[in-house]
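Hey, quick one: can you model this chain's 3D structure?
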Amino acid sequence: MDTVQKLSEESPVYWIDLPDGRSLATINLTPGERVYGERLVQRGGVEYRTWDYRRSKLASAFLSGLESSLVKPGDRVLYLGAATGTTVSHVSDIIGEEGIVYAVEFSPRMVRNLSLLANKRKNIVPILGDARYPSTYSDFVNEVDLVYEDVAQPFQAEIFVKNIKMFLARKGKAFIAIKAKSISQVEEPRKVFEEQRRVIASADITVSEEINISKYHKDHMVFICKL
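Sure thing. Here's the predicted structure for all 227 residues.
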């Protein structure tokens, strides 16, 4: 029999058993609506959206042991590198109607897609902006509980630090998915991760957890941080 189970007791993320395997899932904030071709599954009068780890660093981090309460209902989230909104949509599910996700994206074409998504999901605020310059969108973003970064830029840690310093609440957390090859094509990923860790720590930001997600996304490491 197909079942649904929370990742942990307080988790807003679920395991859902399907006839062809098991998948992560979130409760659909907009029942009947898909975002990227994911499955919609009804269980006990609730509609769930399957979550494809191949298209989400956050889902991959959960599969690799990340504490699933990193994002909670009602949270305010600054999402850097929102793209077309695949992971943003699952964050939207998790934070619910009382939360808000500020979705920053550099590409006008992708922001158009985000805007269509935000028309249906009122807790998403699409922002056309460059994450390297957080002051350019500071008028639109309030203090947040979580800074989330997934940008393919050479100075990923520096971008992360700037946004944490400007927007993260004192007791908030921050998530960065570091893509080693975006920083250096020749340096060993291990050395790249070490240097990015050093940059973050030198800004008086604590790296509290490290999660290697290279099993799902080649040469990627996740850091969980706090002030």
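One thing worth noting: The longest helix spans residues 108-120.
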